[in-house]
Specification:
CATH architecture of the largest domain: Alpha-Beta Barrel
Shape: globular
Largest sheet: 10 strands, mixed
CATH class of the largest domain: Alpha Beta
CATH topology of the largest domain: TIM Barrel
Number of domains: 2
Helix content: 25-40%
């Protein structure tokens, strides 16, 4: 039985494109308390919106908003068809919205309900990119000028026209604002040549290290494009440059593939941006094949589920590195910050700053100061959805690119 007006009265699925497309779940209780969840699945947003609107919302009305664990199990176990990105993103949105409600009712920032702060702030990393090495070095320097203390480095590769992480043209704003999802009737095409990439990237990191010295934490994302053998070669070649991590070196679907990579390199490995449940991590964590968990609160079942994954990872000295690009809405970003502040095995937090129009549609209380994020101390998540702004930006379809080899074969993107 619900108490103190905590019965769920209304469940709304809000789809808008303020700068880019976001799907937001808004749950309201009988006493008017509102909770928000991020239901954005980049490039397939409407599939989650329909799942929530047509199947989940009718189940939630009339339930006690405070029964978070029971609701999570109902949505996961009660529908028979488990896991997958659409289902788990929908569950994530509900879970985060219910945690938001519970914390607002308590009058506390969400991290206090998760056990309180384990640190004063969250080390965040920026994204730097360049079409050549001098431009990349300028981008790294700009990130440092903005206050970041860790930087992800992505570079164009000679002979390839479009490579993940590098905008098609230099940003007119002078800041990293790469958005791969392109509005239109179909996806754009990236191109790929593994051998060219493996030859070129070590020299780029040598130049960056020579410019900025040994102390700056550097990260790199291979974005699932390498075979296990190629991934091992890359990790080995980057060892002299002491990376903080090498991300998604090979598709994580085949967990056993990381055994070969691990045998041949000591470069730290981060995996999991596309993984959605603890079952996806069983081998990776138990055999200590990775060093950082990359799943997001928005796609891995919410705070309830991701905390379980991270508690499991902590048993093996594996740390968090939650996905935090702008395909995660400010709601999802805030949820990640609250969880990251509370857990013991925090590693680093990805932080891409949203556009000005996105931050008009989502008012946030989190802060970025001297390289560190903090979720703020407003009750709940500390995020408000501004309908009058969001409604001015109707949904526009956008597709993530596809990736092809030089002979036209579709490759991992």
């Amino acid at each position: 039985m619900a108490v103190n007006g905590s019965t769920i009265r209304e469940v709304e699925v809000l789809v808008a494109s303020p700068g880019r497309t976001f799907v937001t779940l808004r749950i309201t209780t009988e006493d008017g308390v509102v909770g928000l969840g991020d239901a954005t699945l980049n490039g397939r947003e409407l599939s989650v919106a329909a799942y929530l609107r047509d199947h989940v919302a009718p189940m939630l009305v009339g339930r006690d908003a405070h029964r978070i664990e029971d609701t999570w199990q109902l949505l996961y176990r009660g529908v028979y068809w488990r896991r997958g990105p659409v289902t788990m993103t929908a569950i994530s949105a509900v879970d985060v919205a219910l945690w938001d409600i519970k914390a607002r009712v308590a009058g506390l920032p969400l991290y206090q309900l998760l056990g309180g702060a384990s640190r004063g702030g969250l080390l965040a990393y920026a994204h730097a990119t360049g079409h050549d090495t001098p431009a990349l070095i300028d981008s790294v320097r700009q990130s440092l000028d903005e206050g970041f203390r860790a930087v992800r480095v992505q570079t164009a590769v000679p002979g390839l026209d479009h490579v993940y992480g590098v905008p098609a043209a230099p940003s007119s704003s002078g800041v990293y604002d790469y958005e791969p999802a392109v509005r239109g009737e179909g996806p754009t095409v990236d191109d790929w040549d593994t051998r060219a990439y493996l030859r070129y990237v070590p020299g780029v990191f040598e130049a960056v290290r020579n410019e900025f010295g040994p102390e700056l934490p550097l990260l790199h994302d291979a974005h699932h494009r390498l075979t296990p053998r190629d991934a091992a070669q890359l990790g080995k070649s980057l060892e002299p440059f002491d990376l903080f991590w090498l991300e998604d070196v090979t598709p994580a679907d085949n967990q056993e593939a990381l055994r070969l990579v691990r045998q041949h390199t000591t470069t730290p490995l981060a995996i999991g941006e596309v993984l959605t449940s603890v079952w996806d991590y069983q081998t990776l964590i138990r055999e200590q094949l990775i060093d950082f968990v990359r799943s997001s609160v928005a796609h891995a079942g919410g705070i309830t589920s991701l905390r379980r994954i991270l508690d499991y990872a902590g048993m093996y000295q594996i740390r968090s590195g939650m996905h935090g690009a702008t395909d995660i809405s400010p709601v999802g970003q805030a949820a990640a910050m609250h969880l990251a502040l509370a857990i013991h095995n925090f590693g680093i937090q990805e932080y891409m700053k949203h556009s000005a129009v996105s931050l008009e549609a989502f008012r946030t209380s989190f802060t970025f100061t001297d390289g560190y994020l903090h979720p703020g101390d407003e009750p709940g998540l500390g995020v408000e959805y501004v309908d009058e702004v969001a409604e001015r930006h109707e949904y526009v379809r956008a597709y993530l690119p596809v990736n092809r080899l030089k002979d036209g074969t579709v490759h991992d993107w």
